[in-house]
Design a protein that fits this description.
The chain is of the alpha+beta class. The protein has helices spanning about 5-20, 30-45, 75-95, 100, 160-174; strands spanning about 50-55, 65-70, 115-120, 130-140, 140-150, 155-160. It has one domain. About 25% of the residues are buried.
Length: about 170
């Protein structure tokens, strides 16, 4: 029974976090509160829904992992824009949060410290079965994934540095 308590807390936290559009109660954990606020803001800005949270938390936190679902089909440019906006927003919030500063292994945190994924959904709310399916950043690299029929293999079809992705977003906005 003891082993089920952390699992129950994790599942409950994940359930609560996926309800980002709903006003959430304050929490004693400043990182969890920051993630809830970020998820709510990203839902308002782009319609993406937090589906998972994790990271490297031994002796403070080094990497924050956030995963979002986006209930729509999209293209590479739009997906890149949402991903870059999300990473930049969460980095800004983390780095200005003085309460969390002592918990950070690296300060200021940079894109290397953020693993961020946005997964697309088809018109029925299920996973994409053909074409662009998700975008993810890890270790300062942005990856675009596609699903290839008939067996549904998921392949990296494009990758670029975070800085290259930021530059493309900046150029598209000008």
């Amino acid at each position: 029974m003891k082993n089920l308590i952390p699992l129950t807390i994790t599942l409950f936290s994940t359930l609560i976090l996926t309800l980002a559009p709903i006003k959430l109660p304050a929490t004693a954990d400043p990182l969890e509160q920051l993630v809830k606020e970020h998820a709510s803001e990203m839902y308002k800005r782009h319609g993406i829904i937090l589906s998972g949270m994790g990271g490297q938390f031994l002796h403070g936190f080094k990497v924050l992992n956030l995963a979002f679902d986006w209930p729509k089909k999209s293209n590479e440019e739009e997906l890149r824009l949402v991903l870059i906006d999300g990473v930049n927003q969460v980095l800004e919030a983390l780095n200005r949060n003085e309460e969390l500063r002592n918990e950070m292994v690296d300060y200021p945190m940079t894109p290397v410290n953020i693993d961020y994924t946005v997964s697309l959904e088809d018109d029925d709310g299920g996973p994409i079965r053909d074409g662009l399916s998700s975008c993810s950043t890890s270790n300062n690299i942005v990856y675009f994934f596609e699903v290839v029929p008939p067996n549904g293999a998921v392949n990296i079809y494009h990758e670029e540095t975070f800085e290259e992705a930021q530059q493309k977003v900046a150029e598209a906005n000008n």
